[in-house]
């Protein structure tokens, strides 16, 4: 892309590939990938007060309150590494969060929201197959992208685990919350002329090519 100054939001249902595409964009654009899910999971792992409260909601597929999330993002994007832009993955996730983000934008270039469109049966399958490294957070798909040794991360040798919220009944709850709270953001960003819609099916590399083409077309 012409300029590295980017201010991106990745949208899509759970398992659409937001984290995967954000990781690829981070390498391509050289700006931080901010995953609110990862921030919360770190808090859970540390056993902080926020982590203890968040875990109860996350394990049921429910959202952490908007004011808490806006506060977390406000603090994170104020860090010096976000000066040239950033990629938000998992935020905003509700209309109040999107409005909150607009108020935090400061002197950043206009926000572009990239929506990954993946059928719900496909995301359910992807989430059931996901394993994540406890150490470096690399993700695997048990059939499409399995680790060389079962249960062990190829990259750092860390332990692979299945997220509590990737169990069948919680996936269904997360999809309902997505449809009710997050899907309306597509209209919110479309109205602002800020939405890039991308077919999120096919390999991660194919999707990435479409994401870059969609962003180039706007530049
Ligand atoms: P979060 O961690 O944000 O989860 P999510 O949005 O449900 O998204 P996922 O991480 O499950 O999926 P993804 O779209 O990133 O896909 P991925 O690349 O991993 O949030 C978790 C919880 O935290 C929430 O439920 C909520 O409680 C709380 N929370 C977080 N942010 C919040 C906020 N702003 N407000 C309130 N609460 C908040 O890919 C999925 C799998 O598919 C992987 O195995 C991957 O390898 C595979 N895959 C990826 N791309 C492809 C492809 N093209 N083809 C095949 N497989 C693929």
Question: What's the SSE blueprint?
Answer:
Elements: E1 6-11, H1 18-29, E2 33-35, H2 36-46, H3 49-58, H4 66-77, E3 85-89, H5 95-104, E4 112-117, H6 120-129, E5 130-133, E6 139-141, E7 160-161, H7 168-182, H8 184-191, E8 195-199, H9 204-218
Parallel strand pairs: 1-3, 1-4, 2-3, 4-8
Antiparallel strand pairs: 5-6, 5-7
The structure holds BIS(adenosine)-5'-pentaphosphate (AP5).
The site of BIS(adenosine)-5'-pentaphosphate (AP5) has 35 residues, from α1, α2, α3, α6 and β6.
Could you characterize what this model shows?
- The protein has a domain at 3-118 and 182-216: P-loop containing nucleotide triphosphate hydrolases (Rossmann fold, 3-Layer(aba) Sandwich).
- A five-stranded parallel beta sheet has the order 2-3-1-4-8, sandwiched between helices. Strands 6-5-7 form a three-stranded antiparallel beta sheet.
- Helices cover 47% and strands 16% of the residues.
- It has nine helices and eight strands.
- It has helices at 18-29, 36-46, 49-58, 66-77, 95-104, 120-129, 168-182, 184-191, 204-218; strands at residues 6-11, 33-35, 85-89, 112-117, 130-133, 139-141, 160-161, 195-199.
- Helix 4 (66-77) packs parallel to helix 5 (95-104).
- The protein is an alpha/beta fold.
- The longest helix has 15 residues, at 168-182.
- The structure holds BIS(adenosine)-5'-pentaphosphate.
- Residues 12, 14-20, 36-37, 40, 57-58, 61-64, 69, 90-91, 93, 97, 126-127, 129-130, 139, 141, 144-145, 165, 174, 203-204, 207 line the site of BIS(adenosine)-5'-pentaphosphate.
